[in-house]
């Protein structure tokens, strides 16, 4: 399934948050969204997920969903959003129970997503027994359990330390290489964007408009830290972001 934003604009009260955003999310690609704080990245993700509707413009879904898809659009949040009283398997079974899937069918799905996220040995652990990185793996496993058409990830690694972030980026790349998924990935972190994004959308300061879309052709599995081509992309992104942040600062100075 593909998602398309067509001329999306939105204001909360007097504050225009997004202005004239037109963007395609192609099937099988990870599209990263970066931009200064408050430029409307999370708002855009809520529009894509259908949690809110924009004032003007539209969000279109086209093409079939994957076989066995229970939820076409699924979120992964920064704070994991796990139920503390349910163990790992129980947190995943919750989304299946919502669809009336129990028993052997649920067990098979849970075993599969736990194996894919390297959590099989932890199926009976409670969230409080897990590190931050493992909690986020559970959240990713839970998202995969519904076999979504598009995963919407809102700063999924930003609560984690640098080493754990690296490990989880490797995991996401491995997951994508085994079964390419479609994702929109909001992040502040430009090294995450160049590591995971097939396309990186740079938003301007608020009201967020598309400043530039950077396409990176290097296959995800071949992207290495220190790769000069990736570093050049990252430097370009930082140049754009820095201009926006400086302009936002100057605006504040004139208030
Ligand atoms: N429900 C809401 N009601 C009113 N204002 C809102 C609402 N949601 C977001 N905003 C405002 O819209 C603007 C954009 O918010 P949003 O969270 O989408 O930005 P963001 O780019 O994700 O920010 P950050 O990078 O800081 O997470 C902010 O000024 C925010 O305060």
From TrEMBL:
GO terms for molecular function: ATP binding; ATP hydrolysis activity. Gene3D superfamilies: P-loop containing nucleotide triphosphate hydrolases. Transmembrane segments: none annotated. It comes from the Bacteria. Keywords: ATP-binding, Nucleotide-binding, Transport. Belongs to the ABC transporter superfamily. This is ABC transporter ATP-binding protein. The lineage of its organism: Bacteria, Pseudomonadati, Pseudomonadota, Alphaproteobacteria, Rhodobacterales.
């Amino acid at each position: 399934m593909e998602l398309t934003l067509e001329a999306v604009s939105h204001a909360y009260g007097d504050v225009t948050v997004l202005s004239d955003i037109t963007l395609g999310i192609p099937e099988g690609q990870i599209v990263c969204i970066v931009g200064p704080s408050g430029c409307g990245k999370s708002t855009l993700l809520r529009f894509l997920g259908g949690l809110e509707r924009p004032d003007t413009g539209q969000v279109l879904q086209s093409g079939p969903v994957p076989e066995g898809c229970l939820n076409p659009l699924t979120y992964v949040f920064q704070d994991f959003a796990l139920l503390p009283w349910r163990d790992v398997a129980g947190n995943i079974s919750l989304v299946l129970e919502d669809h009336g899937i129990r028993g052997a069918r649920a067990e098979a799905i849970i075993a599969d997503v736990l194996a894919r996220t390297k959590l099989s040995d932890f199926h009976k652990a409670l969230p409080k027994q897990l590190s931050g990185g493992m909690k986020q793996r559970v959240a990713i496993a839970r998202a995969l359990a519904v076999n979504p058409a598009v995963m919407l990830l809102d700063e999924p690694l930003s609560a984690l330390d640098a080493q754990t972030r690296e490990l989880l980026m490797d995991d996401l790349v491995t997951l994508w290489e085994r079964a390419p998924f479609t994702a929109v990935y909001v992040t502040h972190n430009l090294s995450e964007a160049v590591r995971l994004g097939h396309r990186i959308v740079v938003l301007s300061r608020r009201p967020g408009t598309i400043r530039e879309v950077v396409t990176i052709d290097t296959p995800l599995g071949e992207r290495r830290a220190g790769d000069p081509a990736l570093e050049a992309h990252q430097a370009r992104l930082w140049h754009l972001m820095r201009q926006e942040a400086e302009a936002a600062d100057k605006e504040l100075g004139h208030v």
